[in-house]
Amino acid sequence: MLDKLSQMKDQAIKEISLAENIQILDEVAQKYFGRKDGALNTILKGLKDLDPDARKDVGGLANQIKLELEAAVEATRATLMKRDVESRLESDWLDVTLPVERRRGHLHPLSIIQYELEDLFQNLGFKILNGPELESDYYNFEALNIPKHHPARDMQDTFYVDNPHNPDKWVMRTHTSNVQVRAMKEFGAPLRAVVPGRVFRYEATDASHDTTFYQLEGFMIGEDISIANLVAVMKTMLSGLFNRDVKVRLRPGYFPFVEPGFELDMQCLICSGKGCSVCKRVGWVEMLGCGLIHPNVLEAGSLDPRKHSGFAFGLGLTRFVMMRYGIEDIRHLNSGDLRFLNQF
Ligand code: DAH
């Protein structure tokens, strides 16, 4: 029995040293120390047939062998693990000095123009305000002097949304003018603010119409604010945006929330007013709507029209972007198409 034990030990030591990886090592360990049919236990089961002295010798040796084998397994396990880590370090290396191609994102052309205009107006003392895109019928229309069944509603094709809390409908705001009365109520007068933002119209889309586009609304309210102030601010804005002196003119225009109301044209920068294909031979390009804020709107904003007056304007940010970069189809702007976006 003692011989059998030492033979088994020699064999086990050999197999342990030959184990190529941890999995094989575990299998070897199982083969010798396994509770059920491990070789060592199988031999020890024969102990009971031996006389007490021999039992003691064999038992002692078996224990000693067990300890030795366990030590051998653990030593081999440590070696194998170290080898594993080393080989992984070998294969998974990373050269931190290698130059990387860095593809940085950049601003969308709409954001570029929006931020430029925001800077410009901030320098003129205007606040930048935001407002809700899902708006009450009240702030989008009624407070702006566009009553419920007035034909002026038809000027803006609208997405109406059911409002479970209120018989009044919600609307996807059709213009950023929705912030006018909100701002008057919040800040009172004097007030200078611009409101860039996304607006929505129920449109059949084509090269110049989209259901979603961007505007910038602006207003200045105080005592004795006049059309002269309006023209000065508009000229400053357009000269800043196009980086040169521009000429503007006002034509009468109807918007229910201003009185008088105007369309503001800029002299064509391509032909300096002589007439070309860009200005369709008229020498002037229509830029935005504007006017003096209607007394009813000031009142809706809790201001006294006898004391305060103001101008307001609203421009198509999307249209400005198209003009500045010569983009021929509005649908490119919200397409997410990288072939388009990478050009900016
Ligand atoms: N809200 C108008 C629109 O979306 C644009 C506009 C016109 C805004 C005249 C104004 C204004 O503030 O005075 O068509």
In short:
40% of the residues lie in helices and 19% in strands.
Identify the notable features of this structure and list them briefly.
single chain; alpha+beta; BirA Bifunctional Protein, domain 2; 3-stranded antiparallel β-sheet; 11 helices; 10 strands; 40% helix
Structure description:
The protein is of the alpha+beta class and 344 residues long. The protein is built from eleven helices and ten strands. The protein has helices at residues 2-18, 22-33, 39-45, 52-91, 109-123, 137-140, 179-187, 227-242, 295-300, 317-325, 338-341; strands spanning 127-128, 134-136, 160-161, 170-172, 191-200, 212-222, 248-252, 258-267, 284-293, 309-316. 3,4-dihydroxyphenylalanine binds next to β9 and β10.
The parts where pLDDT drops under 50 for at least 5 residues are: none
Shape: elongated
Number-wise, the strands total 10
- Rg, rounded, reads 41 Å
Instruction: Write the H/E string, N to C.
Output: HHHHHEEHEEHEEHEEEHEHH
Give the C-level CATH assignment of the largest domain: Alpha Beta
Average pLDDT, rounded to a whole number, is 92
Strand fraction: 15-25%
